[in-house]
């Protein structure tokens, strides 16, 4: 069990980033470049896919996050969390939250994807999730972005538990999610430059968030 987590609560900062790393990016991104991204104040941590990735690589990535005092969450990788030094778990299936919390205990971060379902988000929150994610990891907001914005606004008005929004590789509606009260944005990082969620694009998004919410003035 981890006694202390590198995690900021919503009242301490404005909207921040959780960087979603696919297996292909996880295998190719340099640890120095990853550390530089994690050093950005607007980055809260990583949500990483584990399928097909060697535990030694996961261990190195988790250690890089730890070195920057950022969270490292494994997607559906409960059995590997302690072995690789990660800080918690992200579940694609919100119905598994209660059981996962029982197995993990209170000392680990737990989040869950809830799609566009208010019911799923409420059940996940009641089951012990530390945050709920609207949308699905890796998916674009696309034509459903207004539904996401409506969900975020509803959640932010009624609940204290943080909410996140999956952006995929497009950032066109990121500002709208921030304005509606999202605590975290979850872009899927890609390695090719010139795309919205390349490392350069992530830095630009972080700068936009900093301008919208100067540090120390974040509001729920």
Task: Please describe what this structure looks like.
The structure is a single chain. The protein is an alpha/beta fold. It has a single domain (14-212), classed as TIM Barrel (Alpha-Beta Barrel). Helix content is 38%, strand content 19%. It is built from nine helices and eight strands. It has an eight-stranded parallel beta barrel, surrounded by six helices. Helix 8 links the parallel strand 7 (163-168) and strand 8 (184-189). The mean pLDDT is 92.
Short description:
The chain has helices at residues 23-28, 31-38, 55-67, 81-84, 97-104, 118-127, 145-158, 174-180, 199-212, and strands at residues 16-21, 43-48, 71-75, 88-91, 109-113, 131-134, 163-168, 184-189. The chain is of the alpha/beta class.
